[in-house]
Amino acid sequence: MDKSNQGNDGELLTGDLDLEWVYLLMSAKEAGIGAEEIRRFFSEKTALQAM
After folding, report:
1. Can you tell me the distance from the alpha carbon of 20 to that of 27, in angstroms, rounded to the nearest whole number?
2. Is 14:4 a contact under the CB 8 Å cutoff?
3. φ/ψ (deg, to 5) at 41
4. CA-wise closest residue to 13 among 5, 3, 23, 22
5. For residue 39, what is the DSSP state?
6. Is 6 helix (H, G, I), strand (E, B) or coil?
7. How far apart are CA 36 and CA 34, in angstroms?
8. CA torsion 38→34→27→7, rounded to 10°?
9. Is the pTM of this model over 0.70?
10. Dihedral sign, CA of 14, 9, 42, 34?
11. Phi, psi (5° rounding) for residue 12?
């Protein structure tokens, strides 16, 4: 059975992306990084890309 995160067209499925975020946040929490810190990081990165 294929356990990749990709659908038939090679793109990530929405449910898979949600699971990736859950995994990221859980891993960060175990490493002592708060969810708010991750949100701030991505917010700042998005703001920089918009410039």
Report:
1. 10
2. no
3. -60, -50
4. 5
5. H
6. strand
7. 5
8. -40
9. no
10. positive
11. -70, 140
The answer for residues whose C-beta is within 8 angstroms of residue 13's C-beta and 6 or more apart is: 5, 6, 7
Please count the residues of the chain.
51
Those residues whose C-beta lies under 8 Å from the C-beta of residue 22, and which sit 6 or more positions away, are none
Q: Write out pLDDT tens, residues 4-38.
A: 444 555 566 778 878 888 888 889 889 998 878 88
Provide the token pair at 12.
Answer: 């990530």
Q: Where are the alpha helices (DSSP H) in the chain?
A: 14-30, 35-50
- Tokens at residue 26, please? 């859980």
41 is written with which tokens?
Answer: 């990081």
Confidence (pLDDT) at 1: 39
